[in-house]
Structures are given as C-alpha cells and as structure tokens.
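Worked example 2:
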Amino acid sequence: MNQRATQAQIYRRRRIILLAFVALIGYLIYLAVAAIGAMFTPKPVVATSSNCKPGVVSVTAFAGDGTDHLTVFDAKTNPLVWFSVVNTGKKACTFNVGPAVQFFTIKSGDQLIWTSKQCNRVGLTDQQMVLQPNKAKLSPPSEWLRVYSSGGGCGKGQAPALPGSYTLSVEVNKVMSSNYEQFEIQ
C-alpha cells in the first residue's frame, strides 16, 4: 500500500509539473504574440514644441459649402464658415485653436450683423495644436443661420438677416484673419 501511495504521489507531482510547464508555455506564447503585435502598432508621435510666437500664425476666413469658396448663396442655402491657421515660422509651435478662442464676425458694411461672441459659449474648450511650418490646418465648418445675433443669442429665433452683401472675419486666439471673406445672400 505504501508503494501505491508513492506512485500516486509521483503521478500527481508529474501532473502538477506538466500543468505548470503548459501554463508557462502558454504565457510565453502570449508574450510573443503581444510583442509581435506591438511591432506593427503605430506609435503616437510626441511633438515637443513651444508656444507660437506673436506674428507667426496667420488666420484666413472662408465662406462656402464647407469645401469650396462660394460668393453667392441662394435663398435656401445657409453659408458655412470656417478658417485655416498656418504657422509662417521656421519651427513647429503650439497654438490654441479651440472653440473657446474662436470668434466669427459677419458684417454688412460697418454694421455688425452676427458674431459668435453672442452665442452660448458655456462649455467651449481650448485645444492646443502643434502647427508645422507652412502647413495649413482647417477648422470644421459651422453653419450661419442667416440671422442677426444679439444679447439673446445667435441662432434660431433671432431676427433674419436681409439679402445683401456681407463680409466674414475670424479671430482665433487673439489673431485676426488676414482677410475679409466677401459673399452675398439672396
């Protein structure tokens, strides 16, 4: 009986060692697959840059369909407005382009028609962006609903703007657009 107990203990030890060996092999295979996967996963590029110096960022205002400039909008089409920012310096730099520091202004002659400064700005945030030299970055387009802005807001429910000629300018992080985009609504 003593010999049988000893053989059972030997088999149990062998099974434990075999299970530990199989677990170790499984773990090594897992590590190998993870290492191979990591080789093919793109690494995030960490850009180190300083804030853009005054005068090296150029902003340009655009009105159109979100892709192309349009100078005339029919009675059923609301203009989309957006901007580009370009680092005109020689080194990459960081610039805040977030919605908290974007201000669109639409005028007719000298008369202020609409400004995003009068929109609900609660919750708008900053967004730091690394600007490479001479590479334009475009903002997402926003729709102008053809209304006047006022202390009461800048969207639906405001007085409608009349057909006529308008200019768009943009301020981004205290940098004014280098142009006044001209367009007409019918």
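DSSP finds one helix and 13 strands in the chain. The mean pLDDT is 89.
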